[in-house]
Amino acid sequence: MSYRGRFAPSPTGPLHDGSLVAALASWLDARAHGGQWLVRIEDVDGPRCPPGTDDVILGQLAALGLVPDEAPVWQSRRGDLYQAALDRLIAAGLAYGCACTRAEIAAAMGPRAKHGELIYPGTCRPENGGTQGRPVRAWRFRVQGRIDWQDRRLGAHSQDLATEVGDFVLKRADGLWAYQLAVVVDDAEQAITDVVRGEDLADNTPRQIALQRALGLPTPRYLHTPLVLAADGHKLSKQNGAAAIDIGAPQERLREAMARLGLSAPPVSPALGPWLAEAAARWPGGHFGSGS
C-alpha cells in the first residue's frame, strides 16, 4: 500500500514549537517516502476547542508550506463512524456499558496517575453483574492480554493492558467520543499507513492496536518523535503556556524544528518550496540525533 501519513492537531490553541515539530516530522516522513500527507482536526473534545482555532492552525500550516494533499477532515463531523464502530464492539461482546463514577473507581482501586486516569477494576463487566440497573454513564472496551509493538525510533515495546490500563472508555459520560476510538476509526477510514507523532503519545499505541485488532482494522507503522520541553523540563504544551509560533519567518521556524529533531537544515532559500524539498531529502527515516 502506498504511504499515507497525517498530522492530527487538537485545536485547543494555535500551533506552538512542540506541535510544529510533530507537524514537520510527519510531513517530512511522507515526502521522503513519496507518499501523501493529510491533516485531521481532532476536535472530538469540543468544549476544549475555542471556535476558529482550527482555521488558525490550518493558516499556520499553509504559511509554513505544509499543505495537505487532501481536504482536511474534522472529528466532530464523524460521529456516525464512531458509533458504528462502537456498535460492532458491543455486538462482539468487546464493549459494555459502565455506570461507575470516578469516585467509585477511586474508592475501589485508589488513585493511579498512569494515563491521567484510574485503572478500571471491571466492576460493570457483564460477568460481574453489569450495571445492576443503574444508568449507563460511559462505554468501555474490554481489554485482554499483552500488546507487543515496534516503534520506528523507540524500538520494541510491550504493555499488559489488563494490569497497566484496564478497560478504557470509548464513549464518555458526557456523550463525547474518546480519543482512542476516534483515532483508530479515522486512521483506518483514511487508509493511514504511518503515524508520526510526539513521544508523549507512545503510551496510547497499545490501546489503539488492541482496538484495531478487535475491529479487524490494519495497524499502521508508528514513529514517535522527540518531545520539545519547556523550561521546567515538562513537555511544551498549551497547558503550560507555550506561545503560538511566529510565522513571519517560516524558514527560520522550520529550521528550528529540524534542529529539535536532531537534523541539520538546508541553507536559507529564496523560495520555501525548494527548501522544503531539500529538507525532505535530509530526512533519516526515524533515526534522530545524528545531525545528519
From TrEMBL:
Domain Glutamyl/glutaminyl-tRNA synthetase class Ib catalytic intervals: 4-264
Q: Indicate what this protein is called per its UniProt record.
A: Glutamyl-Q tRNA(Asp) synthetase
Q: Where is this motif: 'KMSKS' region?
A: 235-239
* UniProt EC number: 6.1.1.-
Q: Which residues bind ATP?
A: 238
Recorded superkingdom: Bacteria
What's its job? Catalyzes the tRNA-independent activation of glutamate in presence of ATP and the subsequent transfer of glutamate onto a tRNA(Asp). Glutamate is transferred on the 2-amino-5-(4,5-dihydroxy-2-cyclopenten-1-yl) moiety of the queuosine in the wobble position of the QUC anticodon.
Work out whether the entry's keyword set contains GTP-binding: no
Q: How is the cofactor bound?
A: Binds 1 zinc ion per subunit.
Q: Which organism is it from?
A: Pelomonas nitida
Could you say which residues bind Zn(2+) here?
98, 100, 120, 124
InterPro entries in the record? Glu-Q_tRNA(Asp)_Synthase, Glu/Gln-tRNA-synth, Glu/Gln-tRNA-synth_Ib_cat-dom, GluQ/Sye, Rossmann-like_a/b/a_fold
Cofactor(s) it depends on: Zn(2+)
Give the classification, highest ranks: Bacteria, Pseudomonadati, Pseudomonadota, Betaproteobacteria, Burkholderiales
